[in-house]
C-alpha cells in the first residue's frame, strides 16, 4: 500500500481499538498508507434488545480488510506471550481500546506504544475528554498523540493540534467526525515521523493536568431552579445518553428537546416516566 507521497509504508504495527470512532481512524490511516498487521479488540458481546452476540466495530473492519484479529478477555501473560513471540512489531497504536494496557505490553515493540487522545494534553486526561470539553465549554480543544507509559494519559507528547468549534452541535457525531479527521491524520503523521526518528518528545507538565471521569446515568440530573447556562451545556453533553432529566412527584422526567434562550435552558419537549413524549408547556 502506498502513502500520500506514493511510497510504500513498511511500518509493522498492532492497532488496539474497539468502537466506531476507532474504525473511523483506521479508515483514515488506511487512506494515508498505514494498515495494521494485527488488530486487537474487545470480545464479542450481547447487544440490542435481543441481546444477540455481536462483534465490535473494529473486528468487523479487520475482517473486511483481511487483517488478523485477537480478542483477549484479559491482558494476561498468555496474551503478552502471543504479542511477543508471534511476530516482531515496530509499534503499537491505541485508539479507544477500552482497557488499560500494562507496562509489559506497552514496552513490547521497538518504538513503544502510541495513543491518540481527544484533548490537548495534559488537559482533560481520562475517559471522557470530549464530553467534558462540551460541559465546561473548553474551546479550542484538540487531539494529541503521546508515547504511552503505565500512567493514564501521562506519557510524553509527540504531536498535537487544536480543534475549534464555533458552536457545539447537539449531534456528537459531528464533533467526533471533525476530531477523527484531525486525529487520524495527526496519527498517520506521528507513525511516519516517530518510526523515522524525526519527532522529539515533550514531557507533559503534570502541574497543568486536569482529569475527566467516566460518565454515569445520574450525571444527567439537572436542577430546574438553576437558571445558568450549565443546564444547556449538560443537554449538549449528555445527548443522546444518558440524556438530561429532573424529578417531579417522584417521577423521572426526561428532556428530549431544548434550546438556549436568554442564557438559560428553555425546555420544549419531555418524556414523563411511563408516558409518551409531550410538549413541556402542557406539562403539569
In words, what does this structure look like?
- The chain has helices spanning 20-31, 57-64, 77-85, 103-106, 129-135, 172-195, 230-237, and strands spanning 13-17, 38-40, 45-47, 52-54, 69-70, 91-95, 113-117, 141-147, 157-163, 244-248, 251-261, 264-272, 278-279.
- It has 2 domains: 13-208, Rossmann fold, CATH 3.40.50.170; 217-282, Methionyl-tRNA Fmet Formyltransferase, Chain A, domain 2 (Roll), CATH 3.10.25.
- The protein has 284 residues and is an alpha/beta fold.
- Helix 5 (129-135) runs antiparallel to helix 7.
- The chain is globular and about 65 Å long.
- The relative contact order is 0.11.
- 25% of the residues lie in helices and 24% in strands.
- The strands form 3 sheets. A 7-stranded mixed β-sheet has the order 5-2-1-6-7-8-9.
- The longest helix is centred in the middle third of the chain and has 24 residues, at 172-195.
Mean pLDDT: 92
Tell me the radius of gyration: 21 Å
Q: Find the count of extended strands (DSSP E, 2+ residues).
A: 13
Structural class category = alpha/beta
Short structural description:
The protein is an alpha/beta fold and 284 residues long.
Blueprint of the fold:
Elements: E1 13-17, H1 20-31, E2 38-40, E3 45-47, E4 52-54, H2 57-64, E5 69-70, H3 77-85, E6 91-95, H4 103-106, E7 113-117, H5 129-135, E8 141-147, E9 157-163, H6 172-195, H7 230-237, E10 244-248, E11 251-261, E12 264-272, E13 278-279
Parallel strand pairs: 1-2, 1-6, 2-5, 6-7
Antiparallel strand pairs: 3-4, 7-8, 8-9, 10-11, 11-12, 12-13
